[in-house]
Write a structure and sequence with these properties.
By secondary structure, the protein is an alpha+beta fold. The chain contains 13 helices and 19 strands. The protein folds into 2 domains: 103 residues, Serine-tRNA synthetase, tRNA binding domain (Helix Hairpins, Orthogonal Bundle); 302 residues, Bira Bifunctional Protein, Domain 2 (BirA Bifunctional Protein, domain 2). This is Serine--tRNA ligase.
């Protein structure tokens, strides 16, 4: 959530940055400022009236002590009249504060200065590539055929049990899934992250804190009776661990990692691009979250990008890194780098990770602060990234490593899987 003082002091910059994000309601900026002006007027009126009540109340006691009962009763009547005035002012103030909050949360985060302009994924900027794209045999097949051949994943069974987009991993497929989760977690732990196993459902406050609400309610599964939301990513519970906390500056950076299943409705997804593991409603993912000093967040962003890149290199997968343009970024992000791996059998790039800096957008919602040496609390910055999302990684591991003798697995997975290939 943007901060009102910043909007007031930098209105033209805010409008310029919102335009870069292709935001369609710039008039909300003026609404925010008008509501903030009204809030200030009502606050001043309330405070001045309350001060009069307090002052006159003290006078009543003095008058009564001096035996000036009639004057005291007159003052009492004046106090009662002022108190009656306070009620409507307080109601108007509460309504204005709510309207200000409800309007403010409709504004997305501002893109950072290095975010490129653009409206569509085709306008994202490629930063670099790594790995070698394999040359497959003429009879190579996509992962959904490999899953059937080696009995790794049963898509029809998932459809029977739940519905489309809920695959059932089995036998060597289930073992490979578990092996990759364990490897990703160990890789993160070896690089200074602390592991958490958070809940898979969160309350409305937590979903609001990371920006899923009110922006993405249509994409989240909602347990309506309890008003809980199934998490779309471990980012939500992990970041909320520090909601309403004030940490010491010496505690920063805070690095967290965790494995969870993730649940996304993906409304409107259809067609050939959603076959197999390309787009599912439930999937496993290992997440990274950092809470850092505001002066160090872009340094942390570079570190996280390098971390995910190193992980992909260890899996020997061809990848590319994209800096997203303004129009392709999420509502809450200030800057995002997407990682895509190349599916040699499908001959297309598949997104497997997003690494984002949210600056103070999330921490302002969650009131995650730190104290500097002067003791004044300030908002931290928050970042997160996938390390990694499993479905498309598995798809590319299967497709890119298929041979006549089986699927040769990357060396780093051998000890976790218990074998060097799927046969």
């Amino acid at each position: 959530m943007l901060q009102v003082p910043f909007i007031r002091q930098n209105k033209e910059l805010v409008l310029e940055r919102l335009a870069l994000k292709n935001f369609k309601e710039p008039g909300l900026v003026d609404e925010v400022l008008a509501l903030d002006d009204k809030r200030k007027r009502l606050t001043q009126e309330y405070d001045e009236t309350q001060a009069q009540v307090n002052s006159l109340s003290k006078e009543i006691g003095k008058l009564m002590a001096q035996g000036k009962k009639e004057e005291g009763e007159q003052q009492r009547a004046a106090v009662n009249a002022l108190k009656e005035k306070l009620g409507p002012v307080n109601e108007a103030l509460n309504a204005t504060e709510k309207a200000l909050h409800d309007t403010l949360v409709k504004l997305p985060n501002l893109p950072a200065a290095i975010v490129p302009p653009g409206h569509t994924p085709e306008e994202n900027v490629e930063v670099r590539r790594g790995g070698d794209i394999p040359t497959l045999a003429a009879d190579a097949v996509p992962h959904w055929d490999l899953a059937k051949k080696y009995q790794l994943i049963d898509f029809e069974l998932g459809n029977k049990i739940t519905g489309s987009g809920f695959p059932v991993f089995q036998k060597q497929g289930a073992r490979l899934q578990r092996a990759m989760i364990q490897y990703f977690l160990d890789f993160n732990l070896d690089n200074g992250y602390t592991e958490y196993a958070p809940p898979y459902l969160v309350n409305e406050t937590s979903a609001f804190g990371t920006g899923q609400l009110p922006d993405k309610e249509g994409q989240m599964y909602h347990a309506t009776e309890d008003n809980y939301f199934l998490i779309p990513t471990a980012e939500v519970p992990l970041t909320n661990i520090y909601r309403d906390e004030i940490v010491k500056d010496t505690d920063l950076p805070i690095r967290m990692t965790g494995y969870t299943p993730c649940f996304r409705r993906e409304a409107g997804s259809y067609g050939k691009d959603v076959r197999g593991l390309n787009r599912v409603h439930q999937f496993d993912k290992v997440e990274l979250v950092q809470i850092v000093h505001p002066e160090k967040s872009f340094e942390a962003l570079d570190e996280m990008v390098a971390h995910v890149e190193k992980l992909l290199n260890s899996l020997q997968l061809p990848y590319r890194i994209l800096r997203l343009c303004g129009g392709d970024m999420s509502f809450a992000s200030a800057i995002t780098y997407d990682f895509e791996v190349y599916s040699a059998a499908q001959q297309k790039w598949l997104e497997v990770s997003s690494v984002s800096n949210f600056e103070t957008y999330q921490t302002n919602r969650m009131k995650i602060r730190f104290k500097e040496a002067n003791g004044k609390p300030q908002l931290t910055h928050s970042l997160n990234g996938s390390s990694l999302a499993l479905p498309r990684i598995m798809a590319c591991v299967l497709e890119n490593n298929q041979t006549e003798a089986g699927i040769q697995l990357p060396a780093v997975l051998h000890r976790y899987f218990g074998a060097d290939k799927i046969a």
